[in-house]
Amino acid sequence: MLFLIGLSALLFYALYRYYSMVARYPPGPFPWPVVGNMFQQDVSRVHLNSMRFAPSFDGLYTFFVPVPIVFITDYDALREAFVEKGDDFAGRPDDVAMQIFTYEPNTVLVNGFALPPETRDQLERRKLEAATAHVLSSVREFLDALEAMEDKDRVDFHWPIQLMVGNIINEVLFGYRNKYDDCEKLMNYVEDFQNWMIEIAKAPEIAIGFVAPSLLKISQYVVDNVQKCLKGYNSEDEPSCFVHAYKQRMPNNEYLDDINLISTCNDFFMAGQETTTTTLRWAMLFMAVNQEAQDRVRQEIETVIGRDKLPRMADRHKMLYTQATILEIQRVANIAGGNLTRRTTRDTVVRELVDRMVAFSLGKRACAGESE
Question: What's the pTM?
Answer without folding.
Answer: 0.74
